[in-house]
Amino acid sequence: MNHLFENGKPQSIPTVLANRDRRVALQNQLTAKHPDQTVIAAKLNIPGPIKNNQTIRDFFAAGLAVFEKQLAAKFQFRMAEQWLGESTGPERFYLVDGPAAQVKRLTTEFEEAQAAHRLFDLDVLSRQNNQTVSISRTELGLPKRQCLICGQPAKECARSRRHSVAELQDRVAALIENY
Questions:
Q1: Which residue stretches, if any, does this entry annotate as coiled coil (predicted)?
Q2: I need a surface site. Which of 37, 49, 77, 141 has the fewest CB within 10 A?
Q3: What share of residues in the chain are helix, strand, coil (percent, to 5)?
Q4: CA–CA gap between residue 170 and residue 92 (Å, rounded)
């Protein structure tokens, strides 16, 4: 029995969707204001209604400390904004001096480096033709994100609801606990 999801404020789908809209607006603002930089939007993939609590925030901060060392070894960057206490989950936004494709390769390496890092969702965005564009793994010939439980493409499992929320939460709790 995991205890990770015993604390925190349950989130409704409308609240999560409203937060997504707020994130997209900030991403658009950042790419418009800094068109020569690449934006990284960092968040976690946390299943179920509890998206944030102290353990989740601590995991997020510890993982991003590792990521920032890797990022600093290759690029100049700065944190643009962070939302740590949001009940919809912690988020951090970076401005990076580097080509989006190279930044995406680095974020993917981090996400795939160890099992717990697969919980991180590091979106890479740039400004192209006056629009914010997200760089996908597949555009760069990189593998699709895999399911935490079965290894199939994660989007297929999510779309078909192949695994229960309880199964996913148990796996996420184990990854965070063992980090």
A1: none
A2: 141
A3: 45, 20, 30
A4: 25
Average pLDDT over all residues of the chain: 94
Residues 7-58 pLDDT 10s: 999 999 999 999 999 999 999 999 999 999 999 999 999 999 999 999 999 9
The tally of CA atoms less than 13 A away on the side-chain side of residue 170 is 7
DSSP characters for 14-80? Answer: HHHHHHHHHHHHHHHHHHHH-TTSEEEEEEE---SS----HHHHHHHHHHHHHHHHHHHTT-EEEEE
Q: Can you tell me the distance from the alpha carbon of 141 to that of 118, in angstroms, rounded to the nearest whole number?
A: 18
pLDDT digits (tens, 9 = 90+) for 116-144: 999 999 999 999 999 999 999 999 998 88
- Quick one: tokens of 76? 């100049």
Q: What is the pTM of this model?
A: 0.93
Q: What is the DSSP letter of 151?
A: -
Report the CATH fold assignment for 9-142.
Alpha-Beta Plaits (3.30.70)
